[in-house]
């Protein structure tokens, strides 16, 4: 599709080196990587990630999502993931966009839009909070229109909200429309799980019982276990562990904390348990892992997008 090449050209023009680049368009980031990267952990927020060139692999617990051009990823919850660019070169770098979803705009659109065609309301949708879909020409055209505004920055305050709304409209009429609707319905299972996720993210450093999380989500304990696992591919306690370890890694890397102090800060009482679980997730003990990140930063792509 010629729109893919146009999209790649715009991203390449506005990213002269490897990295993640915020843009003047609110919530829109551009990503460029010129080589295969190492796996990198992070939290994927509700967003649309669309690849124009190259291939990426995203791991959610034990599930693998691999996608490239003409496919896009929609995340409908805050999820600890592992991301890795697996196809890129200096001649044909990995190029993608990430648009954080504006839930207030989506909610207003859901109220204003006419009912979806029957083909969308009856279509099967994946139960995970991360799903892949084929990118149809209408969605690509909307993405190109939004990114073209980067070439005329004076137009962004006036036209970007309209272009973003068109892009969201295409998503709301795509094969993940049901998921986006469930994201916005106050008492949907997805929204209940999102309440549990939000509570765990606020309290991850403290011990808690699953019963307490279930109360916050307004679900029974058995229902929370079932639907939390369906959405995130992990249990609430596994989710908490992922958040703890990722935050500990950030503290060691950016605030120069030693491993024991970082472990205590995120809620670990046992340094040896922390070290074992850290190595299991990141593939190396804390000091060795952070040293590698500092000496080879270009080899580690951001997990999201």
UniProtKB/TrEMBL annotation:
Protein name per its UniProtKB record: AraC-like DNA-binding protein
Pfam family, one: AraC_N
Swiss-Prot/TrEMBL keywords: DNA-binding, Transcription, Transcription regulation
Gene3D superfamilies: Homeodomain-like (1.10.10.60)
InterPro entries with a match to the protein in the record: Homeodomain-like_sf, HTH_AraC, Tscrpt_reg_HTH_AraC_N
SMART domains: HTH_ARAC
Transmembrane portions of the chain: none
Highest taxon of source: Bacteria
Residues in HTH araC/xylS-type domain copies: 194-292
PROSITE patterns, alphabetized: HTH_ARAC_FAMILY_2
GO MF terms, alphabetically ordered: DNA-binding transcription factor activity; sequence-specific DNA binding
């Amino acid at each position: 599709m010629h729109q893919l090449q146009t999209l790649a050209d715009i991203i390449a023009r506005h990213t002269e080196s490897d990295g993640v680049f915020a843009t003047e368009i609110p919530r829109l980031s551009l990503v460029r990587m010129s080589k295969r990267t190492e796996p990198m952990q992070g939290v994927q927020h509700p967003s649309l990630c669309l690849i124009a060139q190259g291939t990426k692999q995203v791991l959610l617990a034990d599930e693998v999502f691999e996608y490239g051009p003409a496919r896009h990823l929609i995340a409908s919850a805050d999820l600890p993931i592992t991301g890795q660019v697996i196809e890129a070169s200096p001649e044909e770098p990995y190029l993608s966009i990430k648009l954080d979803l504006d839930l207030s705009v989506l909610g207003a659109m859901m109220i204003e839009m006419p009912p979806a065609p029957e083909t969308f309301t009856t279509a099967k949708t994946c139960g995970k909070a991360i799903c892949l879909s084929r990118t149809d020409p209408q969605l690509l055209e909307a993405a190109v229109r939004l990114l073209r505004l980067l070439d005329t920055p004076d137009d962004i305050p006036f036209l970007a909200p309209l272009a973003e709304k068109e892009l969201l409209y295409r998503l709301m009429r795509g094969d993940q429309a049901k998921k986006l609707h469930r994201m916005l319905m106050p008492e949907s299972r997805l929204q209940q799980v999102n309440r549990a996720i939000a509570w765990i993210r606020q309290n991850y450093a403290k011990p808690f019982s699953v019963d307490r999380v279930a109360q916050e989500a307004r679900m029974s304990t058995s229902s929370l276990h079932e639907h939390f696992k369906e959405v995130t591919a992990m249990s609430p306690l596994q989710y908490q562990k992922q958040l703890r370890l990722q935050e500990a890694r950030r503290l060691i890397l950016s605030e120069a904390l030693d491993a024991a102090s970082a472990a205590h800060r995120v809620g670990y009482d046992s340094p040896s348990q922390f070290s074992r679980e850290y190595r299991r997730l990141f593939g190396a003990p804390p000091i060795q892992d952070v040293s590698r990140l500092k000496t080879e930063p270009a080899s580690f792509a951001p997990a999201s997008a």
